[in-house]
Amino acid sequence: MKKKYLLLVITVVILFFGCSKSNVNGSSTTWALKGTTYTAVNTDYYDSNSNLALLGGTDAKGNYINIYFNSHPTINGVFNLTTFDKLGYGNSKSDCAIIVGNNNSSYQYNSTGKSGETVSVTFNDGKMRATFNNITIEDAGDTTIVTGVLILK
After folding, report:
1. pLDDT value at position 104?
2. Beta strand pairing call for 95-101 and 77-81
3. DSSP string spanning 37-100?
4. Max CA-CA distance within the chain?
5. With left for phi above 0 and alpha for psi between -120 and 50, is residue 22 left, alpha or beta?
6. What pLDDT, in 10s, does the model give residues 14-51?
7. Terminal CA-to-CA distance of the chain, rounded, Å?
């Protein structure tokens, strides 16, 4: 429970105290979790003075996916997945973490940092695209996978 509270507090700090924000309504962001495909109605990007950056999508029912980057992506690259609590502690600037949850906190999955799992970030025609496939995520002992793409115009 403390871990979820800490993640919520850090997310709020990034969202409200970040130095910039971009928002896309009617996005092409989708992700699949446990046989259900979610489509975001908003895709947002926040960066902060702490060097963490957040790319996230939320669907109409409040389900969300967030990718936290250890540095601000500005060029095409591959980011290694870690757990959220390891970001910012001397880890590589090419590290990131994925959090998948919903607005009533009935679940909040965190990437496990399994070796070889990555997020690919590309920039094309002013759009940022983060793609990930078969990423291992865990919530209180429940392990599953998530696949998706987040697109910020």
Report:
1. 82
2. parallel
3. EEE-SEEEEEE-TTS-EEEEEE-TTS-EEEEEESS---SSEEEEE--GGGTTSS--TTEEEEEE
4. 41
5. beta
6. 443 344 444 444 458 999 999 999 999 999 999 876 67
7. 35
User: 32: part of which helix (H) or strand (E)?
Assistant: strand 30-33
* DSSP track, 90-148: S--TTEEEEEEE-TT-S-EEEE---TT-EEEEEEETTEEEEEEEEEEEEETTEEEEEEE
Retrieve residue 100's tokens: 């998948």
Which pair of tokens denotes residue 62?
A: 């409040």
What tokens appear for 65 in the block?
Answer: 């996916």
Tell whether the model's pLDDT for residue 9 goes beyond 80. no
